[in-house]
């Protein structure tokens, strides 16, 4: 008999009627032959109300005492849900996180799970009880109550499902929410957004970390680590939702599955940074020590002994980040600049591993909308761009990707969010309202032949061994290091920073059938940008020629440089961005060997860097040792 873990969020247990409906769903699952665990959040606005109560007492409450306070919300929910199940004629028992043995670290308000003791849980299941469990909470090794922070109840549900699976049960996890499933983008912004039947762990992990709010990335990390099938579905219906599962071949048939928008980030640019080993490590190590998660990182190719590093952090961490970096910036003789309000728009899809022209399609859609790109980074299956919100032009003429002028009278006003406009444009450009093939169906075209992806093969092969090395369930999972010495780089210096220019460059490359891998764009001066991207070494000459031809039309003063003597290293795993220590360990290991980094890209499933080709093997060896993968 398998186990079903059902999670109900605050809106799904907000009142007595909702609690009774959740109880009915749990009972139906039991009558269908499953053992059932129900994970619940605090009712409705309870958590916000508790925070407000604390605010009436003090403006700076102790994190430990806030955990004591906030954990009471879930305790109310579990008792009421167990009572509802009793009222409907079934047996149930409720447990808090500490009672069930969810042990965390001692980082109050955002603790991470270290282990779960399933003995009491399994005993209750085996005696026929529906177990009702408090989400969002646990206990540290000192016996103090802890809470898990954002997405804590989702994280609890998937972590418990993983623990039960490790205890020998077949398991699946259902996340009940107020939407029908995972959509291609936020349907509140794009009305024709489509619910997906299925999405891969990696795609969902990137979507969640890039701004899709249906699930938090921490819960997806657990699902991928421990191979827990998830379904996101509507609490108010019995309709099938969206499965989140391992990647299937049909998922690679089209380049993109979804688009996400994040509007809560701030961008910082370190200019005039000495281009030498160890500088990146120093910058990101101090942020990691302060537990500040850095999102987009774009380090441009150094010139004249100086480099530029751009990165984003949450708006709530901006002031602390600037304060922490101030001494290092002064010591390096660099400048730390904060840009205006920004939004991040990301396109995600497994198919971009194999299909050329993805960047070109995205950038063309944004150019037509007159949206300028202040920063670009890529990952294995995502492209993210930073859009500046301040100072939007109201009218006038911009240059389309074809070089012809187009009117901007159709654009939204200065007060509107450019990120939303960009989101709509990219969603339409990839025809995401159209259906992707359903789970298990073969590709529609017999001509499509997925190429083996060494990153996926390495990550899958080493996953079980990596899990065995974890000291805590929620520790970062680093499963492998991959070296690619068959790449080359094209860099465009002093590209005019205006809409359409990136689109024209990548259109020229894509029409040559050249697959672009890493992309980094940073500002390099007033109204200027530096654009770098990698292509297979065999295609360098063609890529360089096509880029030179189009850049000459844009601005003859631009310089285009090719470099075939590079190596690209990828550190693979789960939660690579949200766990602050990954970049610190990676950059620190390379710095200790005196290996300089000339490009950086980050995502949830891999961190990539470019180094000299001659030192590629040495870099691979030192990273393998640093992450204890040997």
TrEMBL record:
Catalytic activity: L-aspartate + ATP = 4-phospho-L-aspartate + ADP
GO biological process: homoserine biosynthetic process; lysine biosynthetic process via diaminopimelate; threonine biosynthetic process
InterPro entries, per the entry: AceGlu_kinase-like_sf, ACT-like_dom_sf, ACT_Aspartokinase, ACT_dom, AKii-LysC-BS, Asp/Glu/Uridylate_kinase, Asp_kinase, Aspartate_kinase_CS
Domain of life from the UniProt record: Bacteria
Entry EC number(s): 2.7.2.4
UniProt keyword list: Amino-acid biosynthesis, ATP-binding, Kinase, Lysine biosynthesis, Nucleotide-binding, Transferase
Gene3D superfamilies, A to Z: Acetylglutamate kinase-like (3.40.1160.10), VC0802-like (3.30.2130.10)
GO molecular function, one term: aspartate kinase activity
All residue ranges annotated as the ACT domain in the record: 268-350, 490-568, 571-630
Record flagged with keyword Magnesium: no
GO CC list: cytosol
Keyword Nucleotidyltransferase in annotation: no
Pathway assigned in UniProt: Amino-acid biosynthesis; L-methionine biosynthesis via de novo pathway; L-homoserine from L-aspartate: step 1/3; Amino-acid biosynthesis; L-threonine biosynthesis; L-threonine from L-aspartate: step 1/5; Amino-acid biosynthesis; L-lysine biosynthesis via DAP pathway; (S)-tetrahydrodipicolinate from L-aspartate: step 1/4
Similarity comment text for this entry: Belongs to the aspartokinase family.
Protein name: aspartate kinase
Annotated source species: Gemmata massiliana
